[in-house]
């Protein structure tokens, strides 16, 4: 009889409560049902019915999360992390909904807080154990990949360890990072490009500050010890130019006087007379091509060096025109008559080439 009474009451709640909250409940999205019911309560809509729906939805979501918690020993680490963040998110919602929770809901919120604390302890223990396995292997084998896995593990440990159970984690983060870093030394040889040696050095000295978390770059002799020594050998800047000629013809019809005639009614009609102007443009085009190449030779100083030989190149082309005219200039479009030959700024081209080469080298070795 008591069960029947509860069932009737629940049906009544569903009938009268906000439709969107009810739909979320019926679909099994209990967290959404709690949010939507709470919104209705704050708006003072069907407060009694929405409060009942909120508590029913809260208890259902609690049962889902608590069951997963009690069954956690059968779950793998990724699922445990997912459960932790789901509980954490729901507890934030529970804190907001607390003024509307009944005694059962408040007790369940307290239990879920305890579940989260225990789950955090379990997660931290497992993450710490795995990170230490990588850390010990890295120390034994001087393996940078294992050190990187250890470093990532200790960082993750710190993100979960809100109770600061693992006080040594910060020191382990620093030690594992030190073991994980690849040290690259770049030796720059400008070759026969003596006139551009300063520009080359100035551009590639920037690489010192560009290394990612696990890469540290040095220029010339600042690296000790080094995993890789990379010699950047600049080949001679190649310049070439090609010329071509094209003739373009243009016509323009203009009014050149008029004549008169009479229509059927004897009225005088003015009829314009046109003539065709003809002009030619001779376009002499010069294309300037620039190409620069770097050969990167790699000397592996330790087994941790994962860099490899490669070549990098950058190119630029600039087209410039000289126009000469014949015939009637009025027939020639203004874009040719108003053209002003630009200045060929070779310094800017060199800067662009070096910027391209720098980015290609950096992106390849980073």
Features of the shown structure:
single chain, 366 residues, alpha/beta, 6-stranded mixed beta sheet, 11 helices, disordered N terminus
Structure in words:
The chain is an alpha/beta fold. The protein has helices at residues 2-16, 19-26, 30-42, 47-70, 77-97, 103-141, 144-160, 169-180, 197-204, 334-337, 346-365; strands at 182-189, 215-219, 228-234, 238-262, 268-300, 310-327. Strands 1, 2, 3, 4, 5 and 6 form a six-stranded mixed sheet that branches. It starts with a helix and ends with a helix. The model is unreliable at 1-5 and 7-17 (pLDDT under 50).
Structural class category = alpha/beta
Distance between the termini: 72 Å
Query: Number of helical segments?
Result: 11
Q: Sketch the topology as an H/E string, one letter per element.
A: HHHHHHHHEHEEEEEHH
Rg from C-alpha positions?
39 Å
Structure summary, number of beta strands: 6
Mean of all residue-level pLDDT scores: 90
Contiguous low-pLDDT stretches (5 residues minimum) are 1-5, 7-17
**Proportion of residues in β-strands:** 25-35%
The share of residues in helices is: 40-55%
Query: What can be said about the biggest beta sheet?
Result: 6 strands, mixed
Q: How would you describe the shape?
A: flat
Topology readout:
Blueprint: H1 2-16, H2 19-26, H3 30-42, H4 47-70, H5 77-97, H6 103-141, H7 144-160, H8 169-180, E1 182-189, H9 197-204, E2 215-219, E3 228-234, E4 238-262, E5 268-300, E6 310-327, H10 334-337, H11 346-365
Parallel strand pairs: 1-2, 1-3
Antiparallel strand pairs: 3-5, 4-5, 5-6
């Amino acid at each position: 009889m008591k069960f029947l009474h509860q069932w009737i009451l629940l049906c009544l709640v569903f009938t009268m409560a906000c439709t969107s909250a009810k739909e979320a409940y019926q679909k099994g999205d209990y967290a959404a049902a709690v949010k939507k019911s709470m919104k209705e309560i704050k708006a003072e809509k069907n407060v009694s019915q929405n409060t009942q729906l909120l508590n029913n939805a809260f208890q259902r979501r609690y049962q889902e999360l608590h069951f997963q918690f009690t069954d956690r020993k059968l779950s793998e680490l990724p699922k445990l992390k997912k459960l932790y963040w789901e509980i954490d998110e729901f507890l934030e919602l529970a804190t907001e909904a607390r003024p509307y929770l009944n005694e059962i809901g408040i007790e369940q919120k307290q239990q879920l807080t305890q579940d989260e604390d225990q789950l955090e302890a379990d997660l931290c223990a497992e993450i710490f154990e795995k990170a230490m396995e990588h850390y010990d292997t890295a120390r034994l084998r001087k393996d940078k990949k294992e050190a990187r896995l250890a470093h990532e593990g200790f960082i993750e440990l710190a993100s979960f360890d809100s109770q600061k159970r693992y006080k040594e984690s910060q020191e382990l983060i620093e030690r594992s990072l030190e073991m994980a870093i690849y040290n690259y030394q770049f030796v720059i040889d400008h070759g026969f490009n003596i006139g551009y040696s300063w520009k080359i050095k100035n551009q590639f000295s920037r690489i010192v500050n560009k290394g990612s978390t696990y890469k540290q770059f040095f220029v010339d002799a600042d690296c000790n010890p080094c995993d890789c020594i990379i010699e950047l050998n600049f080949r001679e800047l190649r310049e070439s130019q090609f010329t071509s000629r094209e003739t373009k013809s243009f016509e323009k019809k203009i009014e050149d006087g008029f004549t008169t005639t009479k229509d059927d009614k004897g009225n005088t009609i003015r009829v314009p007379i046109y003539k065709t102007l003809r002009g030619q443009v001779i376009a002499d085009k010069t294309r300037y091509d620039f190409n620069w190449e770097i050969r990167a030779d790699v000397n592996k100083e330790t087994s941790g060096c994962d860099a490899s030989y490669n070549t990098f190149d950058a190119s630029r082309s600039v087209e410039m025109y000289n126009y000469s005219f014949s015939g009637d200039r009025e027939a020639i479009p203004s874009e040719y008559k108003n053209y002003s030959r630009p200045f060929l700024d070779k310094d800017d081209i060199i800067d662009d080439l070096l910027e391209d080469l720098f980015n290609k080298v950096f992106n390849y070795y980073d």
